[in-house]
Amino acid sequence: MARPETLALAVSPERAFGAVRSPKTAEVVARRLRKMVVDGQLADGDFLPHEAELMAHFRVSRPTLREAVRILESERLIEVRRGSRTGARVRIPGPEIVARPAGLLLELSGATLADVMTARIAIEPAAAKLLAETGTQDAHDELASIVNNIPAAWEAGELARASANLHRRMVELSGNTTLAIIAGMLHEISERHTAAAVVGVDNMVPKAEYTKLLRSYRRLVDLVAARDGERAEAHWRRHMQNAAAALLRGYEKTKVRDIMD
Length: 261
Prior knowledge:
The chain is mostly helical.
């Protein structure tokens, strides 16, 4: 058994590298409000109760409550309109809340466009399979609608943006939230690179390339509609691999930061 003086030395402040900090009251209040949002007690668009009611409920002071609100505001979980009498409003964030920090992290870590494409090849075919096998009819209809709008996007010189949106939305429609968040993180990077790699000086993709691309998109729609998950996955993997070969030609060692300026 350790002697008292030995135990005291082991847990002294000077030696307590892993000391546990008690959460501030504001953090506790923020945690409880956050849980109310996660549990659905507070929905997107709902206003938080008035300050007086929250202060009485949590038994905290006004400064403490306002600090808790600022914590949630910094997380973009609530929106506060200064000077408004309506108070704080719940705003459920989407994938964009992590897209910008994740993009910055990729830039700082020296990630290449090839890294990004490899990640997309890992997640998108799996999402295509999920969409085909378990997607709702509304999800299938939306995918078809997006593809039907591709010709207009090409004629407007916005094929890169429309294609990036198709890839991201297809993953979102699969119903897998984790995959959707990852796709959202990579969306802006993918859109910028696609624009840089395939769009010429006239801001138009050559017709032969566009026709081949549209045919592949329509094939995906058909396989998804037939609920043929295996073939949808295989088709989209081939599509992504072919796209990677074309998009990375000449950009094999290009880093993410080089296209995000």
